[in-house]
TrEMBL record:
It comes from Sulfurimonas denitrificans (strain ATCC 33889 / DSM 1251) (Thiomicrospira denitrificans (strain ATCC 33889 / DSM 1251)). This is Replicative DNA helicase. The keyword NAD does not apply. Keywords: ATP-binding, DNA replication, DNA-binding, Helicase, Hydrolase, Isomerase, Nucleotide-binding, Primosome. It comes from the Bacteria. PANTHER family: REPLICATIVE DNA HELICASE, REPLICATIVE DNA HELICASE DNAB. Its EC number is 5.6.2.3. It is an enzyme of class 5 (isomerase). CDD domains: DnaB_C (cd00984).
Length: 483
């Protein structure tokens, strides 16, 4: 039984190999952790080796002994056994054996934990399942960590992060690409472990907005998990294809396309066949089910870099709690899951209709439904706002009133295919708040950067005689002569 759980000879050989060839430690430390070793003394020695590596000091017998004495963990007999062991040049098989036995020990510990939470604690079966799934995910992902990180570990990780940022040069993007240049500049992207809330009133385009982000990521070959609680997967695919091909969404829906458009569609379909997009379109899901599904998916497809939930208020609660408490549990659960899986989770959210009674209908944090817990748990809160939605609604109300009074109605509203849009950063835990201007292309349900829009218009004029063509840009308006 014990031989199946550890191999001290293999552990000694690995530690001996590091002492006699310290240059191996960099590679081995990425494959092994301190608690992969069974013998506590071996754990202490590997931990001291890690500390010496972080401090850029020699990993040799004298320095190891010095650090062990400092923490009162030096065992001369153990050290002699390691120095007497034969160092090995090909460590791969030894590492795999040590890790395999470590995994078995963790699984054995998990069986004890399952018995404890099942028998001794007053938990529901669903809560027990969630605890077990989380522990199992941590074990399979080698995420076993101590309760606390000490200062050397934190400083080393921080310096590693700073050096990585320096190596990137002047790029503004640190996290996951949002798909929009100006938004990337203000947020540096969606960070690992972040809970991002994208909120708006109906018809503002919050789903369209996040699908632009999704499209950017899958075109970069990155993985996306999408929980669509409101619309079937086929409708999401239609929107993505419209974004990619610039074919109006309505034409795609009815198949009314020219030969060139059919060609573009076939090309986009070929790209999407290799996309790493995974959609769950079951209409109802609670936080426990979502956790379980996303853990399994992430385990099977580590390339997934972001998860999207459309939308938060449709998620089912657990038990018979008040809805406010259910939403609190959902938002807190999503934040903890983002940290556990070390990737951003984007949850779409509805806004209260109360904002529509204000003169300025731009959303605020207090407009989020059940906003208390969501506002607290979120790292970033983005609001999608298009003024034309309200202008159109007001026009329809005036028309209705005029007809009711028997008056002639003269429309003053001009419907545009491209509308001004704003992404309002209402909260950002690690950055500034503010506004980002975008353009919304209605027929494609597509958002684009406003500066890209200006460039695309300028391209039309690049062959026009500049002596007679004058383009002026001010206050986001463009004045140009007719072609």
């Amino acid at each position: 039984m014990q031989d199946n759980l550890y191999n001290l000879a293999f552990e000694r050989s690995i530690l001996s190999s590091i002492v006699f060839e310290p240059s191996q430690f960099d590679e081995l430390s990425s494959q092994l952790k301190k608690d992969d070793f069974y013998l506590p003394a071996h754990q202490d020695i590997f931990g001291v080796m890690t500390l010496l590596f972080q401090k850029d000091q020699p990993i040799d017998e004298e320095f190891i002994k010095k650090e062990l004495i400092k923490i009162k963990k030096f065992d001369e007999n153990v050290m002699l056994e390691i120095l007497s062991a034969n160092p090995i040049s090909n460590t791969k098989a030894y590492v795999e054996e040590i890790r395999d036995k470590s995994l078995k020990r963790h699984l054995l510990t998990l069986t004890t934990e399952i018995k404890r939470v099942t028998v001794e604690e007053e938990l529901s079966s669903q809560e027990v399942i969630d605890i077990v799934e989380k522990k199992l995910y941590e074990i399979t992902q080698n995420n076993q960590t101590s309760d606390f990180k000490d200062s050397p570990k934190m400083t080393f990780d921080t310096m590693t992060y700073i050096k990585e940022m320096k190596a990137r040069g002047n790029t503004v993007l640190v996290g996951v690409d949002t798909g929009f240049h100006e938004l990337n500049k203000m947020t540096t992207g969606f960070g690992k472990g972040d809970l991002v809330i994208v909120a708006a009133r109906p018809a503002m385009g919050k789903t369209s907005f996040i699908l632009n982000t999704v499209n950017t990521l899958i075109m970069q070959g990155k993985g996306v998990a999408f929980f669509s609680l409101e619309m079937p997967a086929e409708q999401l695919m239609l929107r993505l294809l419209s974004i990619q091909t610039a074919i109006p969404l309505q034409k795609l829906r009815v198949g009314d396309m020219s030969n060139d458009q059919w060609g573009s569609l076939n090309g986009a379909i070929d790209k999407m066949n290799s996309a790493k997009l995974y959609v769950d379109d079951h209409g109802s899901i609670n936080i426990n089910q979502l956790r379980s599904k996303l853990r399994k998916l992430k385990n099977q497809h580590p390339e997934i870099e972001i998860a999207v939930i459309d939308y938060l208020q449709i998620m089912s609660g657990v038990g018979n709690q008040d809805r406010h408490l259910q939403v609190s549990e959902i938002s807190r659960g999503l934040k903890m899951l983002a940290r556990e899986l070390n990737m951003p989770i984007v949850a779409l959210s509805q806004l209260n209709r109360g904002l529509e009674s204000r003169n300025d209908k731009r959303p605020m944090l207090s407009d989020i439904r059940e906003s208390g817990s969501i506002e607290q748990d979120a790292d970033i809160i983005l609001f999608v706002y298009r003024d034309d939605v309200y202008l159109y609604k007001e026009e329809k109300e005036r028309e209705k009133e005029a007809k009711a009074k028997g008056h002639e109605f003269v429309s003053t509203y001009v419907e545009r295919e491209e509308e001004d849009a704003e992404i309002i950063i209402g909260k950002q835990r690690n950055g500034p708040t503010g506004h980002v201007k975008l353009i919304f292309q209605k027929k494609l349900t597509k958002f684009i950067d406003s500066h890209n829009h200006i460039k695309s218009i300028e391209t039309v004029y690049e062959n026009v005689d500049t002596r007679s063509a004058h383009i002026s840009i001010s206050n986001d308006t463009i004045s140009m002569p007719p072609l």
